[in-house]
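ok so dumb question maybe but i'm new to this and my supervisor (M.) told me to 'just get the structure for p-hydroxybenzoate 3-monooxygenase' and walked off. so i did the thing. is this what she meant?? sequence i used:
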Amino acid sequence: MYAPVGIIGAGPAGLLLSHLLHLQGIQSWVLEARSRDHVERRVRAGVLEQPTVDLLHEVGLGHRLAAEGLRHEGTRLRFAGTTHRIDFAELTGGRAVTVYGQQEVVKDLIAARLVAGATLLFDAPATATAGLDSARPSVRYTLDGTARTAECDFLVGADGFHGISRAAIPAHRLTVYERAYPYAWLGILARSSPAGDELIYARHDRGFALHSMRTPEITRQYLQVDPDDSVDAWPDDRIWAELEQRFAAPGFTLGRGPIMDKGITPMRGFVVEPLRYGRLFLAGDAAHIVPPTGAKGMNLAIADVRLLAHALGGFYADGREDLLDAYSETALRRVWRAEYFSWWMTSMLHRAPGGDAFGERLAYAQLEHVATSRAAATSLAENYVGLSADRPWAYRL
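this is what came out, is it supposed to look like this??
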């Protein structure tokens, strides 16, 4: 099997890259270790930045997003029993975020790729790579119990933190930057009506909490917990009681409902440099991880492949290699900006284990500054809705 571009991983990054290349007349193949059902059902991020929403509409993937996505023109910060609204639209010239689950983005992408006749192989785990610094890289994979080989001119590793792509790069060629945060999130998906029309970020003496939603009937909510905590220690009644305490405010009621899913996610920051080795390029979680507080994970992955699709388009249209050469440096500028914003949001909103009273007062002072200073609120809003994306090219639908 051969195509000009090979892609490992059928998450948002890999699938969108395949779609963007298709719109430029560049063929690709995509290998995914899991089943189609699995990737379409796994619950992940749900907040899309304005540039992400604009791109999905631009490339013909916005129909269901427009019908089912929940546009949020602001968010709420809750601390010391009071609530402060950050007005994204007013502070950023009309920009907003849209709540639309990652699994829904994946469904839309898979449907579009299959309609286009793409080579999209599920249950096809990649097992090894070869020739990454040659003109014809290859990937060994297994399909229907048979070992096979796929070849390409360029290989893109969009196979997540635990995939084989990054591990295929010699360790001495990578610099790894990593930070483990001293807390985790207990996340639930519940059949309950949202308590408001926008996300609520709450800092409480007992820890952080986030109230989000996926639809008008389903909420996604999070509690700060210890990284060593266990889901078994959190029966449903305890979760609801803790959420009610951390969101407590005058006139606020948190609706309860059946919890359909729960899990604990550790929080970490991770970046590797560079994002290229020979003819292998890394994108998405294979290259970087951010704490979820700033809602940057999927948006960063989409920003990566937007750059990469443009660079590959320049190579195949005009023989340009400068954009490919610049991919890593250009992408990493946005990555580190997102790491900083996510760190800032995380530090401001979470109670540090063993933290002292001085640190607590600093955090509340920062929250008060964001709530009362237009400049500080604007900085939060601009970063949250997404950094402006240059549009040096347009896709033809």
